[in-house]
Amino acid sequence: MTEPLEVGDIAPATASGTWAELGGLAEQLLGVVQSVDGVIAVYPAQPLWQSIAGAALSVVTGDAPALITLTDDDELLAVKTRIAVGTSRPAPAVAREVAEAVRRHLLPRPAAVDVSVVKVGA
Amino acid sequence: MNTTSDTLECGHSLAELSAYLDTGQIADPVHLETCPECQAGLASLRHLSELGRELLSSDVADAGSGTDDWMQSILDNLRLELRPGRSIPLQSGNPNDTLWETEGSISALIRSVADALPGTAAGKCRLHGDVATPGAGITVDVEIAVVYGHPMEERAATLRQELAETLALHTELTIQAINITVTDVLEPPKPASPADPTTPADATTPADPMTKEQP
What we know:
The complex is a heterodimer. In chain A, a hairpin with a 4-residue loop joins strand 3 (68-72) and strand 4 (77-85). Chain A is built from 3 helices and 5 strands; from the N terminus they run βαβαββαβ. Chain A is globular, with a radius of gyration of 14 Å. By secondary structure, chain A is an alpha+beta fold. Mean pLDDT of chain A is 78; it is low at 1-15 and 52-60. In chain A, 43% of the residues are buried. Chain B is flat. Chain B has 6 helices and 6 strands. Chain B has one domain (14-213). By secondary structure, chain B is α+β, with helices and mostly antiparallel strands. The longest helix of chain B is centred in the N-terminal third of the chain and has 21 residues, at 36-56. Chain B has a 4-stranded mixed sheet with strand order 3-4-5-6. Chain B has a two-stranded antiparallel ribbon with strand order 1-2. In chain B, a hairpin with a 7-residue loop joins strand 1 and strand 2 (98-102). Chain B starts with 13 loop residues before the first helix and ends with a strand. The A-B interface holds A 43-44, 47-49, 64-65, 76, 82, 84-85, 87, 90-92, 95-96, 99-100, 103, 110-121 and B 9-11, 30-31, 34-36, 39-40, 84, 87, 90-94, 96-102, 104-106, 108-109, 112, 166, 169-172.
């Protein structure tokens, strides 16, 4: 079954490791994304209004929404992120570098990286 | 600032964002840090506010608040455009990857380029064409309001050039045309005179559409 895993969740082990381990991985990947030249912000990977349950959980717990989501379907680790890009570098090139940096960090694990540029400029 | 009550997809309205700029108060300030659409809305509202001050500084502060039809038109367009919109695909270096730009991010970029020109406020900023298909021809329509005294043809030519360069740098869209229409010339009214009690109280006087230029 394919499930989104969010940073900070604690749950039983999956085929690839515990949710907590994947939460740690998401934190690492956040650092990877933020370190790419041209990335000026990382937004919640899933906008809150697209996830009523997530929104309700945030209201109750005060937790920040996940900036990187990981979905493990045993064959591919899907990584999703939404970024803002400054105007100093071409936004498409920055998006490609983000995907490549994430993929490089995850090696040898196969991955599918989804990068959305949701803002261009300061 | 007068706005209607309809909301953006995140649940906030331009009225709330405007109130936040005025008072610094909003129910969930953390949201503003995590919502690109609200950030784009705040940037546009700040620019409109600055432009309003520029108009009011030209000896018309006593003339009244005006009907602000031009500003209402801009706000109406903002409401439509402050949304993620369509997903615009980008080339990726790996077949497993999917890279996108949101239409909203490009509309906001276009708006920021127009707003950066002195005495100019962007109205409608639209991408026409199948943005989801790489290589499809895209037409950009931009409407602007210009404060009286700024040469319109020069302004339109400058804006078109800057937009062409910006879109070539930050998108992979195949831009076929950039149409710029000056929809309003914001001309300060004459100050109210005791001898003329019928002087209009408008702070600004929109003129008829003046130019529409094609590349």
